[in-house]
Amino acid sequence: MATFGVISLVPILLLGVFLTRTVRSALETGALASYGNSVQLMTGGMTNLVLTPEAFATGALTPESAALLAKVTQQLVGPKLERLEVRLVTREGKVFWATKPELNAGVVPPSPAFTDAINDKLDARFAVVGGTRIARFYIPIKFAGNPQVVGIAEASTSDTVATQAVNGRLRAIYLVLVIGLVGLWMSLFPIAMGVARVLRRQVEENEHLAMHDTLTGLPNRNLFKDRLDQALSRSTRSGHHTGLLFLDLDRFKEVNDALGHRQGDELIKLIAHRLVSAVRDADSVARLGGDEFAIIVPDVSNSSTLVVVAERFTELLREPFEINDITVNVEASIGVALYPDHGEDADTLMQHADIAMYAAKDGGLDYAFYSAENDSNSPVKLALAGELRRALDNDNELVMYYHPLVDLHTGDVTGVEALIRWNHPTRGFVYPDDFIPLAEQSGLIRPLTLKALDLSLAQCRRWHDQGLDLRVAVNLSARNLREPDLPDRVAALLRRHGVPASHLELEVTESGLLSDPDYANTLLCQLSALGIHLALDDFGTGYSSLSYLKNLPVNQLKIDRSFVNNMSEDATDAMIVRSVIDLAHNLGLNVTAEGVETLNQLDHLANLSCDTIQGYHLTKPLPADEIAAWVSGYNEQASQNTEGRSRSVRNPVSIPFQ
Ligand code: C2E
Ligand code: CA
Ligand code: CA
């Protein structure tokens, strides 16, 4: 307030100084002019009374004229114009008479003032002579009936004489000015204060908006970043760790679509509220966007504290939410990064918490700590991605193995699943689980899928030419389902290799469909319209709802091998397998059981009317050139097994290699 008062006084003072200067100079100019007029009248009278034009022309006075002039001047100048000194000068500048004898000599140097006067213009100005300010006038002298200026009178006097009257008036004006300005300041000050207060509030509101999320009121990304920077500097000073958790809701898009956006917003608010209620005062919860939250946990001694925090959040969100009498269950994936172990600056730490969060999501975990392994940007991964890129251009590093599929009803080998292998020059045989995720993260999955399709369709054609009629199943990755040109590319490859669409099956996973279900559905419809078979892979591990499944253009469900593997020991898994088979049949779909490793499992599946099997019980995946031999060996054995009997439908006995 005091500062504001002082600051607001400054312009008022400046205004005051400016006004007084302007007024003073205006008054002085006025005073000078009017004083000049008096001087002009006086000198005019003086010379006209006593002198003739000739006196000016010659610059010489008769002694009588000089004496008369002195007398007249005494009378006129003395009482009227104090201390006025007058000199008479010819047009050429020669001084020929002065009020004081010591001034009566020499030549007036040429000057604009002098020229003005010669040109019949009175010149009045202040000048400083010998350290004192004087008022000086150059007065043109004319005689009646003669328009020419015959010479000039140079008159000087102390400036105070000229401005005496001014000073008196100035004092009065200053007083009015001061009173006026103080009054102005006093009336403007409260107004300005009010405006300032409103502006400050506005600025504060804007700052709050710029730093907070409007929906939840939580700090937004900007403020979060500030707080993280601060927390990290404090951490560096104290030597403690700081934890950073990134929390992302699983399948929020579905929930949002199902509930409607208003309720979705409501849910986000409730979640925000729950998160805030569960943290310590020192912790900081922020909403980074959509369904993504971040929590800064400062001053932790080690990662086990963060395990507790992550578990607490998981528990907390597991409690159902009530929105308008609807119970909503949410799940979240949490990525955890620890300062300074997982990053020494805010950006790296955030990046790593993000990577950890995706690792949790991909692995179906509640939370995951950052590790260089799941970081596609870690040096090891970057190097491997570079090698994979090279392998894609290389003809013999990436090869397809084929895993037979057998129809349980007929016992026939109906197709093979193409499984990619990386024949790495130094690392040896690399399995897909070790490089497919990397391909997905590094954007190489697109060329990889196209390569797998190209190799598999070329092989399918070769088998066909050898009289082996096999459908090949190729795996698609979630990312492939976001490539709008996929159907065109697949159609082009089918044409290139002369393979009918019915001989290609594409396997997609449930989780692959979930990131953008609507788009994936459109893409699958286009693929299906080409006549391609579609299979839903790893079924049972995802979350497909029945209604969703009903509308998908798939022909086949592949029960995930984890259920098949455990079905003999685990009653629940056996139940799941049975229900999936029934469900699929009710929807008019075929069922493949993958991962069949034992005869026991095969029998069980046959009893449940499973349609197709795949697994090590038949064979491990084989290189292309071993398939023909394997199929004929299989067929031979099958015909022996079924000798004397028809290869009865649904009779597992017709399957060889028992
Ligand atoms: P998937 O699609 O579920 O493929 C089946 C996997 O299970 C294969 O592993 C296969 O070797 C294995 N398997 C089959 N029968 C049995 C069995 O009886 N017991 C056991 N323990 N395992 C069995 P693989 O070849 O290592 O492939 C792993 C995953 O990599 C595949 O799982 C698939 O998701 C992915 N993958 C493989 N090739 C490709 C490809 O060309 N493109 C894409 N996008 N993904 C691929
Ligand atoms: Ca598969
Ligand atoms: Ca599978």
CATH architecture of the largest domain: Alpha-Beta Barrel
SS-based class: alpha/beta
Average per-residue pLDDT, rounded, comes to 87
Helical content (DSSP H or I, runs of 4+): 40-55%
Written description of the protein model:
The chain has 658 residues and is an alpha/beta fold. It folds into 3 domains: 2-166, PAS domain (Beta-Lactamase); 221-375, Alpha-Beta Plaits, CATH 3.30.70; 397-651, Alpha-Beta Barrel (TIM Barrel). 51% of the residues lie in helices and 21% in strands. It has 21 helices and 22 strands. The longest helix has 53 residues, at 159-211. The structure holds ligand C2E and calcium ion (2 copies). The site of ligand C2E has 24 residues, from β14, α13 and β18.
Concise structural overview:
The chain has 658 residues and is α/β, with parallel strands linked by helices. It has an eight-stranded mixed β-barrel, surrounded by four helices. The structure holds ligand C2E and calcium ion (2 copies).
